[in-house]
Structure formats: C-alpha cells, structure tokens
C-alpha cells in the first residue's frame, strides 16, 4: 500500500467535510469565526483559535484523522500563518483594526497550542502531520509569519512531523528572504525536523539549479523534493534530477 496523506486547511473550514460544514452552518457556533467590527465574518469564515471552544471543536477534526489510522498515514495542514493575518490564495490579508493586538496574539498562541496537540494525537495513532507554516526568525518582513523560535518552542523537536517549504523565485532573488529561509531550515534540521520542499516552475521541463541547491543545503535523511508549474499541474512530469545520486545528506 502506498502512503496516504489527506489535505486539511489551517485557517478556514472545508465544507467538503461533515464536521467543517456543520460548524459553518450552525448559528450556535458563530463564535468560532474571526469577526469584523460590523459583525461580519472576516474573509467569510476564518477560524478564531483564540476561542478555546473553537480549538476544541477543531480537535474533533484531529481525532477524526487519528481514527483513520491504518488507512490515512498523515495529514497535510496548509496555510498556517502568524499573529497578524491570514494568508489567502493570492495575498496576505491583515486583520482589520477592530481586532486588537491582544486578540491577534491569543489567536496566534491558540493556533500553536492546537498544532502541538495535533502532533501528539496523530503520533499516538502512528501518523505524522505535514505542516505548512510560514515561519521566519525576523518577523518584521510580514505579520503573516510565525516566529521561528515560537514555532520550535511550542511545536518542538520532540515530536514527529514533516515541514513543507516552498523554494520559489522570491527566495532566490531576495537575499533577506533566502537567508532567513535557510536559517529556519538549518535550525529545524538540527532539531530533527525534516523538510518536504516544493519548487514552483516557470518551465515545466526545467528545475532551476538554485532550487536544487537550496534543497541540498537543507536535506536530511527523510527530506523530499518536488517541482511543478502549479498545484494542479496538468503537464506534471518526472525530472531526471530525481534520479541523480547526491550522496549522503
């Protein structure tokens, strides 16, 4: 049997799943969502993980994942953001001014608490999460970033999870982003956290050498690399770089 990972979102519920759909539709669960000053839901429906009841409800989703052990080997948790915003499909969406700094901080700490709980729950069932957090030692670049030290202190190196990271053109062209990205990866690798790295391609047939170089810097014994022109790549192909022997990490 090939390993099976399922996809779950880190900041909004997915109506395709029964538990998420129930939360979206229930008036009694309105407090689970981040709200603007006029009472409307921020970005339609963004989890407020500063709300302990909201976190407990999401734990039911985690328990459902763990209950599928033997069929589901892990879960890819996407779009895990910092204390200042939620990341949408095409841009960073800062919280409205009506959400206070303390509320943002509570949401941020609540998210980290929830992800640590999920690691433990899935590990206990013999599963691993694949997390996609936007982290950086220097959070000044964007309020969407999780602080690397916050991540390592609260999620830690004493649990089993993989880390998804994107090695894209912006990291190649921006020295500050590239340096921070590498610092994060090296720190996590030293702590036993291995990276699944993705490189978005402008040309489906060509993987840029700098993307391979970035992966080799951060490669551990359980690290993986892949590339495509997009998330739903119709012309996906196997690249010869996947077959090369790069030696022992």
Folded structure, characterized:
The protein is an alpha/beta fold and 249 residues long. Helix content is 35%, strand content 18%. The protein has helices at 18-25, 52-67, 101-124, 148-154, 169-173, 175-190, 209-218, and strands at 5-9, 74-80, 85-87, 92-94, 128-133, 135-136, 146-147, 162-166, 194-200, 224-228. A six-stranded parallel β-sheet has the order 1-2-5-8-9-10, with helices on one face. The chain has a two-stranded antiparallel sheet with strand order 3-4. Helix 2 (52-67) runs parallel beside helix 3 (101-124).
What is the subunit arrangement here? single chain
Strand order of the largest sheet: 1-2-5-8-9-10
Helix fraction by DSSP (H/I, runs of at least 4):
25-40%
Shape: globular
- How many H/I helical runs? 7
Q: Low-confidence parts lasting 5 or more residues at pLDDT below 50?
A: none
Helix and strand string, N-terminal first? EHHEEEHEEEHEHHEHE
Rg from C-alpha positions? 18 Å
Mean pLDDT: 86
Distance between the termini: 27 Å
Structural class: alpha/beta
List the helices and strands and how they pair.
Elements: E1 5-9, H1 18-25, H2 52-67, E2 74-80, E3 85-87, E4 92-94, H3 101-124, E5 128-133, E6 135-136, E7 146-147, H4 148-154, E8 162-166, H5 169-173, H6 175-190, E9 194-200, H7 209-218, E10 224-228
Parallel strand pairs: 1-2, 2-5, 5-8, 6-7, 8-9, 9-10
Antiparallel strand pairs: 3-4
């Amino acid at each position: 049997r090939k390993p099976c990972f399922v996809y779950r979102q880190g900041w909004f519920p997915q109506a395709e799943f029964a538990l998420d759909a129930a939360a979206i539709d229930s008036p009694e669960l309105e407090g689970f969502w981040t709200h603007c000053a006029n009472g409307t839901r921020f970005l339609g429906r963004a989890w407020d993980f500063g709300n302990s009841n909201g976190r407990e409800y999401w734990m039911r989703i985690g328990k459902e994942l763990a209950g599928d052990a033997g069929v589901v080997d892990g879960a890819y948790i996407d779009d895990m953001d910092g204390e200042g915003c939620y990341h949408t499909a095409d841009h960073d969406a800062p919280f409205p001014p009506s959400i206070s700094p303390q509320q943002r901080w509570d949401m941020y700490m609540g998210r980290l608490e929830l992800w640590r709980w999920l690691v433990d729950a899935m590990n206990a069932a013999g599963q691993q999460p694949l997390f996609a957090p936007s982290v950086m030692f220097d959070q000044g670049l964007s309020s969407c970033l999780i602080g690397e030290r916050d991540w390592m202190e609260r999620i830690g190196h004493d649990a089993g999870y993989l880390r998804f990271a994107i090695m894209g053109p912006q990291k190649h062209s921006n020295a500050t982003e590239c340096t921070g990205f590498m610092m994060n990866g090296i720190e996590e690798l030293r702590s036993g956290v291995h990276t699944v790295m993705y490189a978005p391609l402008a040309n489906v047939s060509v993987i840029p050498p700098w993307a391979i170089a970035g992966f080799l810097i951060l490669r551990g014994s359980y690290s993986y690399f892949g590339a495509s022109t997009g998330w739903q790549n119709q012309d996906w192909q196997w690249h010869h770089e996947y077959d090369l022997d790069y030696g022992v990490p």
